[in-house]
Amino acid sequence: MSRLLHRDTVPPPPAAELAVRSADGARVHVELHGPEDAPAVVLAHGWTCNTRFWDAQIRDLAVDHRVIAYDQRGHGLSPDPGPGGYSTNALADDLEAVLTTTLEPGRRAVIAGHSMGGMTVMAAAARPALREHAAAVLLCSTGSTRLAAEALVVPIRAGALRTRITTAVLGAKAPLGPVNPVSRKVLKYATMGAGSAPDRVDACARIVHACPRRARVAWGHVLAELDLAAGVRELRVPTAMIAGTDDRLTPPVHARAIADALPVGLGLTELAGMGHMTPVEAPEAVTAKIRELVARYLAAGTGTEGTAAASGAAQGTATTGTAATAEKEDVA
Hints:
Layout: E1 16-21, E2 27-33, E3 40-44, H1 55-61, E4 66-70, H2 88-102, E5 109-114, H3 116-123, H4 128-133, E6 134-140, H5 147-150, H6 160-170, H7 181-191, H8 198-209, H9 213-224, H10 229-234, E7 239-244, H11 252-261, E8 265-271, H12 278-281, H13 283-297, H14 307-316, E9 325-328
Parallel strand pairs: 3-4, 3-5, 5-6, 6-7, 7-8
Antiparallel strand pairs: 1-2, 1-9, 2-4
Helix pairs in contact: 1-13, 2-3, 6-9, 7-8
């Protein structure tokens, strides 16, 4: 699979790769980048993507952060978990396993999730590992409920028919086929802003088309029935949001609703002209927000001291035990 964008955005090889075992035994592929004792950032990608989706962020942040990026189950190098392995509980289990395996007790991190990665954070909001390890959260281009009803990919009036068609699209079993001019155009329409650069469209198309069909379909069914409103209310850590104004998959109505419901909301940044793939379409803005959260909520070094107090102070001013094991993998 080709790396994202140009050579100057390709991150160096990971310092280490792990195979983390989730609660049900599923294997989750994890990459560790950057200095081991630097402030930690955890990156969770979205539906049909993989760790390569975060290449621009990894390259920038790994200079002075410990970056922990993982493939959601069934994506990238994380294998298909088998029947019954796809659910929001499984997303939460996997994130818990990654956190408890890669961060020592008491060490905190900024967690950034894009699309289904943001839903992962919401699903895990009440889990002990998230409450122990999350200093702050960034949710990019995501939603908590009514995804099929609110999506704008099908260009007809809102209503039962559009919802049914969108639900069918999310769970469609047809193969995506090779990346070509037609498939790039379709992907750009559905997931990116009209002004997206051709190389960024191509990078996203190659990532999405590489997703195994079984995972795409299985997670599509989960997303069609998603309801994580309770998870939003349980997300009691400082949480910032980013959304593209032209996002057809998770329009900004989702981000606005989540921002209003967050117990410790840090506000919503709406990026004009951007679609659903904000970390690729606007990498500088997303990376800058992560750095801002690290500077504000993580103490110098590993983040084991001072962060809880900072998070508690933020909560005070707000207006609004998974077992895991890790196995090292050979680094290519």
